[in-house]
Amino acid sequence: MNDQTGKDQSSGIAYGFGRHRGLLVDRNGIEEIVYGRVLLYLEKPDTDLIRGLAPRLSGVIVEEPVTPYAPEARALWSLPVPVLTGVRVDDSWLGHEVIVDFDAATTAPPPSAAAELRLHAEVSHLAEAHEAGHLADGWSPLRAEDLRALPASERAELWRFFAESGRPLPAAASFGRRGVRVLLADAIDHFRTLVGESPDHNPLVVLPMVSVRAEIAAFAAATGARWRLGLDIATPAAALGVADLVDDCHLLHVSTGDLAQHILVWDRTVRNDLLLPPDRLPHVVTQLVEWSASVAAARSIPCRVAVDLRPSHQLHEQLIAAGVREISCPAPLIRHWRHLLDRAH
User: Fold this and answer.
1) pTM listed for this prediction
2) Which end of the chain has the least Cβ crowding within 10 Å, N or C?
3) pLDDT value of residue 345
4) What letter does residue 93 receive in the DSSP assignment?
5) Residue at 123 is within a domain
6) How do residues 23-45 score in pLDDT, each as one tens digit?
7) Are 218 and 207 in contact, with CB atoms under 8 Å apart?
8) Is the same domain home to 150 and 72?
9) How many domains is the chain built from?
10) Which pLDDT does position 290 carry in this prediction?
11) Rounded CA gap, 17 and 20, in Å?
12) To 10 degrees, what angle do helices 331-343 and 313-321 make?
């Protein structure tokens, strides 16, 4: 592909904004398209085709230039996905991920994944899934209380979206906000119904607020040990004793917000930049994150760190230094993290 630089922007004319990435395919590769992860390459603008495929596209590259004065320009502006015209693509780039900056009218290969963070979107409803769909690498565990709040029809549509997204299905659900400390029969029955809606034949269930192995054993006994289990590390006790909790664990999810709250014992609604800096993790939280990540790596267990803070280069470097390679964040932050990661390389 011709990698256009800022010095040669005249050869690309953009109809759209933002930075988008995806698998580059042409008309012959349309059958490979997965939801929101594809950049479509066309020799000539075909607005009908683009509009029909729009829900599955992150952007379009058109070889033939379309000037802002051409009759086709208005139709391109009206499309729901951005279009970059006047860019010729080498066949060797088809089938590979590329990045298109529609603001600068440039294209580039994605950065090396050697020390890059993989981004998992936290979603509570379908609109958030759509918002992060073309930028997220995966999905964070769903929360049971969020699923229960949705109409049955939207839950079914949400699972359908996940199944067609081209990423692994998210953990079926996280069992309530209080973990496994209260195992009422009705709660278990309702939870079993929610998990049963997942299209995953071997669903993963994440247990939050776990601090001792007995809680994991109690949940497994109450549910007949029917699901794969993951753990949400949200208390200092769990973080310090994580090595004793992860036997038969399939996912370690570290919640930095909860850790900060329980360690520093400060009202998160009251500003205190000394205890809870807005642009980085508190040092003691970073130490527990690093310990959890090292245990997960030693046991070959996937580890994700949930971060709600504003994406920044300092936070990125802090996470990488702690051995973190996968993070979870709210869906609206995914595009900001993606922008930061793309700019950093």
Assistant:
1) 0.70
2) C
3) 58
4) G
5) yes
6) 888 988 776 565 556 899 999 99
7) no
8) no
9) 2
10) 92
11) 9
12) 90
